[in-house]
Design goal:
mainly alpha, 10 helices, 3 strands, 291 residues
């Protein structure tokens, strides 16, 4: 596609691939599908990335369906290869939860499993050739909806969208509040910020240290969802950008570079899903500790 879209420069090609299909409200009050990246920016908070929403929800449904099929077909006999693979994933996640989470909750293990598999599936979309699905979307937009192909944007890796990764991390952030308040009470949860890391047996000094503690603890606390989101987004965005740059090269050299990078990227997409899952377990475990 890079060779065929002779009307696009290299910069325009990269920018086109990194722009989401955005629907939202324009400054004049009209609702429309953005035709340029500039129009998408003008939509502000009302903008909805249809491609990120569609792929993330669709992959989530695929995840639920596959695990439901395996759970329904499970029996005491010899398992199929697919059932064995699913059981290995469940045992892997369960062992990490048992080793890391020190509280009691029936939610943590299913949550960790959902996070790991869902993020892995979203990351794995990065292994599909960068032009294959976007080019198909352009053909559909041009021949079915009569759109200009250059105005059809379609990203297929949800985790290269900061809105998706930040949305997941904010959900974890909300659970930290829930487990923290449930384990320590509202006063105890707030006390962690007011009386740590510096404290004193002298009541006067203890009160004087509260502002310092609040600055230090709140900064650390608020950095958790941001770091969770940016770590996943940054690694996947960089990986996608490298695939796009490889696609700009002559066809005969693309395979020589894309295949080794794709093989290495399998480790990256798995590792990023694992890191997000483990940090979620650690944060929730810390929030659940009563001491």
């Amino acid at each position: 596609m890079a060779a065929e879209e002779h009307a696009l420069t290299s910069t325009e090609y990269i920018k086109h691939h990194l722009t989401n299909m955005t629907y939202g409200k324009m400054p004049d009050g009209s609702w429309k599908l953005a035709e340029t990246a500039e129009e998408a920016q003008q939509m502000g908070f009302t903008a909805i990335h249809l491609d990120s929403m569609g792929w993330s929800i669709g992959l989530g449904m695929i995840f639920c369906f596959l695990f439901w099929v395996v759970a329904k077909a499970a029996n005491a006999g010899v398992p199929t290869k697919f059932q064995s693979a699913i059981e290995m994933i469940i045992e892997f996640v369960d062992s990490n939860v048992r080793d890391t989470f020190h509280g009691k909750s029936r939610l943590i293990a299913p949550l960790a499993l959902t996070i790991f598999v869902w993020i892995f599936l979203m990351n794995a979309m990065d292994l599909i050739p960068v032009d294959f699905i976007p080019y198909t979307a352009q053909l559909i937009g041009a021949h079915v909806f009569g759109m200009d192909p250059h105005h059809v944007y379609f990203k297929i890796v949800p985790t290269t969208d900061i809105n998706v990764t930040l949305g997941m991390s904010l959900s974890v952030f909300a659970l930290i509040f829930f487990y923290g308040i449930r384990a320590k009470g509202l006063g105890g949860f707030a006390g962690e910020f007011a009386f740590n890391p510096f404290s004193s047996n002298n009541i006067v000094f203890k009160i004087l240290l509260v502002p310092v503690n609040l600055v230090l603890e709140l900064a650390t606390f608020l950095a958790r969802p941001v770091s969770l989101a940016l770590r996943l987004f940054g690694n996947m965005y960089a990986g996608e950008l490298i695939f796009i740059l490889i696609a700009l090269l002559p066809f005969w050299i693309q395979w020589a570079l894309s295949v080794p990078w794709a093989i290495f990227h399998i480790l990256v997409i798995t590792l990023q899903a694992f890191v997000f899952m483990m940090l979620t377990i650690v944060y929730l475990s810390m929030a659940s500790e009563k001491h």
